[in-house]
Amino acid sequence: MNDKQLLRYSRHLLLEEIDVVGQEKLLQSHALVIGAGGLGSATAPYLAAAGLGFITLMDHDQVELTNLQRQIMHAENSIGKSKVASGKEFMQRLNSSIQIDTIEARATTQLLDELLASVDIVLDCTDNFSTRHLINASCVKHLTPLVSGSALRFDGQISVFDPRKPSSPCYACIFSPEESFEEVSCASMGIFSPLVGIIGAMQAAQALQVLIGFGEPLVGRMLLWNGRNTQIDEIHISRNPDCLVCGKSH
Q1: Three-state secondary structure call for residue 91
Q2: What phi and psi values does residue 146 have, to the nearest 5 degrees?
Q3: Could you tell me the pTM of the whole model?
Q4: Which positions ≥6 away from 2 have C-beta within 8 Å?
Q5: What are phi and psi of 55, to 5 degrees?
Q6: Separation CA 85–CA 154 (nearest Å)
Q7: Under 8 Å between Cβ of 12 and 50
Q8: Mean pLDDT of 152-159
Q9: pLDDT at position 53, please?
Q10: What superfamily would CATH give domain 3-236?
C-alpha cells in the first residue's frame, strides 16, 4: 500500500483481525455483485469504501421512481439510467482508486462461467429463486464462495455458502431446485426501506470476513432478521448428501 492508502484505510489497519495484511488481501480481491437494487445498494458501496480492489456489478434493470424508497445508490436524476451505470457513479465517488466494471445483463450460466474464473467471491443480491439457483450452481461448479441475502416486507435472511469447505451446504441444500416456490416481489408485497440496507451491509461484512479470513462467517448457518420486533434468529444448516447440486452423486 502507498501512503495515501495507509491513511485512507487506517481505521481498518488498527483492527488486529485485518491489519495491513488483511487490507492488502482486499485490495487484491475481485467481487462479483449480482443485483444493483436494494441489497446491492448497500453491499456494493460498503465493499468499495472498504477498499475491495476490483468489483464487477451486474444487473439488467433501469432505475425507476419506486426504487428510490430503498435503493440508495440511485438518486432522482438516475431515473431511466441503467442501475449498473448509476451504481458505478455512486461507488466511484466513494472510492476512485478501485476498479469497477459493469455488466448490464441478466445472469446466465455462460456469463457466470466466464466471470467466475477470475472472481474471489460472489454476492447474490437478486430477488428471485431461479436466478439464485443459477448463481448457486455456478459457484459450486467453480468452488467460489457465495454470500446470499434476501429481503421482503419486514423479513430478511443471509447465509454464506463456501463450496471450498467439504461441510458447507449450498443454497440448493435448503431450497431444492425441484421444489416450486411462489415468486413474490417488492412490487406486490412491499418492503421496509431500511431492511435491504441492514441485510446488504451484513452481506458486505460477510464477504470481507471470508476474503480476509477472520472470525466465523455464516457458513452452515442462516441468520433471520425480523424487522417488526427487531429479533434476530439463527438456524443451523447441514449439507445434504443427496443435494441435486453439491451432493456426492453430482
Answers
A1: helix
A2: -130, 125
A3: 0.95
A4: none
A5: -125, 130
A6: 29
A7: yes
A8: 96
A9: 97
A10: NAD(P)-binding Rossmann-like Domain (3.40.50.720)
